[in-house]
Amino acid sequence: MNAKPSANKRQSAPTVFVVDDDAGVRDSLRFLLKSVGLTAKTLASATEFLDSYDVDQPGCLVLDVRMPAVSGLELQQQLNIRGAMIPVIFITGHGDIPMAVEAMQHGAFDFLQKPFRDQDLIDRLQKALAKDAHNRAELKLRDQIGSRFETLTPREHEVLVLMVRGLPNKIMAAELGVSQRTVEIHRARVMEKTAAESLAHLVRMYLDLNPQTHRS
After folding, report:
1. Entry pTM
2. Which is deepest, 38, 39, 101, 180, by most CB within 10 Å?
3. Total of domains in the chain
4. Are both 136 and 164 inside the same structural domain?
5. Residue 37 gets which letter from DSSP?
6. Nearest Cα to 120, choosing from 20, 29, 42, 26?
7. Strands across the sheet with 39-43, in order?
8. How far apart, in whole angstroms, are the C-alpha atoms of residue 110 and residue 49?
9. Residue 214 pLDDT > 70, yes or no?
10. What are the Cα distances from residue 8, in Å, to 11, 12, 41, 140?
11. Contact (CB, 8 A) for 53 and 27
12. Burial class (CB in 10 A: 0-12, 13-18, 19+), 96
């Protein structure tokens, strides 16, 4: 079971996926979502979802906790392993609260206990879709920034690291065994290629891409 990579990177409209083994629940939720203008896709099992899901598809997932074969919690674990960041709203029956709590601990966006009001679900869906849109925008920006940094030459990357450390040109030149003028040229290229507006902006982007790095 593999979440399929996207063959087309064009951003599509968000989809609310409903995964529930109860056909009645799927039909009623499909009708509800359509009535408020949301695109919905209903599936009868976790396996069916994983076999068809494109990780680049924006949206959110409404997921029943208890399902045969692969449970909602097991599906959530599979999504986490694959790095799929789709927000998950669990639907739980009576007595499933401990499972819902476990789901939240593993990153679920929210959960609703049956029976629930239609408006409660819609409100949570709107928040989940907004969260997904925000996450994807942040990821896209991070990818763009990463691509800029990848254009740096090995020498420019060395200069970048020294810039992040806050070293003056004179010290940088001594460490690299080059002239201060050469350092200045490399610094200018680093700023240009990364589209950094200031040294502080450059440092912020670098640290965001390298969270394990601590400035000395």
Report:
1. 0.75
2. 38
3. 2
4. no
5. T
6. 29
7. 39-43, 15-19, 59-64, 88-92, 110-113
8. 19
9. no
10. 8, 10, 19, 15
11. no
12. buried
